[in-house]
Design goal:
Structural class: alpha/beta
Order of helices and strands: EHEHEHEHEHEEHEHHHHHH
CATH superfamily of the largest domain: NAD(P)-binding Rossmann-like Domain
Largest sheet: 8 strands, mixed
Oligomer: single chain
Radius of gyration: 21 Å
Number of domains: 2
Strand content: 5-15%
């Protein structure tokens, strides 16, 4: 066990489950330290309770009362209703961590009407294997202790990067949504492999190890990203031919547009300042 705090999770969707799975798999907490509730889906609560051995209840007051840390992992469109539901039971000595894309710390503070420490987070679904790239930003009442607790929690499921809140929409588009974009690339590579007779198992293994290897090089090499690409690209070679096809189809601009559109959507989902 790494984290001593009791954690209550509001919301029982895929992101909540990814965080739970990552925390337990990496022995950051015990299942007795986690409580969870949601608005209406009893079947989902029962599944999470049975599958992970955590405590699930529809009684919000009961779930929140003993928590040191409250993780709000609900859809942004439900932010106002969800925060108003927990407002009577939350106190200023608790830390609230939001996993709601586009919802600002100021909005949360205003709805709760208390000087409560709020940290906005954006992990990704790789948290369930301990490889999330999580970005965080701090609200007005956050102290170094709250920062330390949150860092400890999210480092147990991956890496942590603190940014200014104005940068959260872009980092959400890059790291929060990013796995989907790499899966999109992997899908395309997989289709090409199958079209040319490579079997399902071999294709998946080759693609996975290629993505992992490139990621590790990017993480550990001192070289610029452009130089890493150049090092693989011999003039007139196979890599150059493939990159030329991507260039002719403006794939780089398509991905830049992808990030811009995702970041804009995050801004549109904001409720409050």
């Amino acid at each position: 066990m790494i984290i001593n705090n009791h954690i209550s999770i509001i919301g029982a969707g895929s992101m909540a489950e990814s965080i739970i799975k990552g925390l337990l798999r990496n022995h950051a907490v015990t299942n007795e330290q986690i409580r969870i509730t949601n608005r209406s889906n009893n079947h989902r609560l029962t599944y999470l309770e049975d599958h992970y051995g955590i405590y699930a209840s529809r009684n919000i007051k009961e779930v929140i009362s003993e928590a040191d840390v409250i993780v709000v992992a609900i859809k942004p469109k439900d932010a106002l209703d969800g925060l108003e539901a927990i407002r009577p039971f939350i106190s200023q000595n608790q830390l609230l961590i939001s996993v709601m894309a586009g919802v600002s710390t100021r909005f949360i503070e205003n709805v709760l009407k208390k000087a409560i420490p709020v940290i906005r987070s954006m992990p990704n679904t790789s948290s369930e294997i301990g490889r999330s790239a999580t970005t965080l930003c701090k609200g007005a009442y956050v102290t170094s202790i709250h920062t330390q607790i949150t860092t400890q929690l999210f480092e147990s499921i991956g890496t942590v990067t603190f940014v200014d809140e104005m940068q959260m929409d872009t980092t959400t588009a890059i790291a929060g949504s990013g796995p989907a974009y790499f899966y999109y690339i992997a899908e395309a590579l997989h289709k090409a492999a199958l079209m040319h007779g490579i079997c399902e198992q071999d294709s998946r293994k080759l693609i996975a190890e290629t993505l992992i290897g490139a990621g590790e090089m990017l993480k550990h090499s001192h070289l610029e990203i452009e130089q890493l690409r150049h090092n693989i690209t011999s003039p007139g070679g196979t890599t150059a031919a493939g990159l030329q096809a991507l260039h002719e189809r403006n794939v780089d601009q398509a991905f830049i547009s992808c990030i811009l559109e995702a970041a804009q959507r995050s801004r549109e989902m904001k409720q409050g300042g």
